[in-house]
Design goal:
CATH architecture of one domain: Orthogonal Bundle
Helix content: over 70%
Number of helices: 3
Strand order of the largest sheet: 1-2
Shape: rod-shaped
Distance between the termini: 73 Å
Radius of gyration: 41 Å
CATH topology of one domain: Helix Hairpins
Length: 229
């Protein structure tokens, strides 16, 4: 049996207040349960996105390194290192958040820096193979995909944290707060009913005493009247 709530007085006003709290707690439990179910559905949808993005990223990385390997075979390791050393920083990540089921989740954008002639590569066009162009393009797409992967992973983690937090609140309402309210309400109702019974018995006893006293007074009055005659 659940414990009684502390600091509660067994009065009718307290009983009405507790019943309002009980109604609010039951309603809150229902809303939180619905929220948790929706969060779980959203979590598994994001999990599918994670699996998809991970597969796509793995395939892109495999293709990019294959292309890079072919480029290395044509240019040689030394020339490839020289080109990579002069590669500029072309991208920056812009981060913001959005509201998802009441949870703030990250939104990441890979933005290309607007510097110089964007149509001209940083390496020579003439003395480099097409596999280098393909490698650069693939690795740029990999950056975009990594950004997307980081976003869905962070979203999934925040949803998981919110699910755990919501579940704790649902369990607290379901196993502690609502049962404790119900126990306290039942105790106060029984207490008030017992007081009403005691009051009723007391009133009946007083009534019988008054009736008895009235009967005795009437008998005395009749006796006095007879003596007067």
């Amino acid at each position: 049996m659940s414990e009684l709530m502390a600091g509660v007085r067994p009065t009718r006003m307290e009983l009405l207040s507790l019943k309002d709290r009980q109604s609010l707690a039951v309603k809150g439990h229902g809303l939180l349960s619905e929220k948790m179910d929706a969060l779980i559905m959203e979590f598994f949808a994001i999990l599918e996105d994670v699996k998809t993005v991970r597969t796509e990223l793995s395939e892109m990385v495999s293709r990019a390194f294959t292309s890079l390997k072919e480029t290395k075979m044509v240019l040689g390791a030394m020339r490839l290192k020289e080109i990579s050393a002069i590669a500029p920083s072309l991208f920056k990540i812009e981060a913001e958040t959005r509201n998802l089921m009441g949870v703030r989740v990250p939104v990441l954008h890979l933005e290309k820096k607007r510097e110089g002639n964007e149509t001209t590569p940083f390496y020579g066009f003439i003395d480099t193979p097409t596999t280098l162009d393909e490698s650069v393009t693939l690795f740029q797409k990999i950056l975009e995909k990594i950004c997307n992967y980081a976003q869905v992973i962070a979203t999934m983690e925040r949803l998981a944290d919110e699910i755990i937090s919501t579940k704790r609140r649902v369990n607290a309402l379901n196993y502690v707060i609502i049962p404790r309210l119900a126990t306290t309400i039942n105790f106060i109702e029984q207490y008030l009913e017992e007081r009403e019974r005691e009051s009723f018995v007391r009133m009946r006893h007083i009534k019988r005493l008054l009736e008895k006293k009235g009967s005795q007074d009437k008998s005395k009055e009749e006796a006095n009247n007879m003596l007067d005659l």
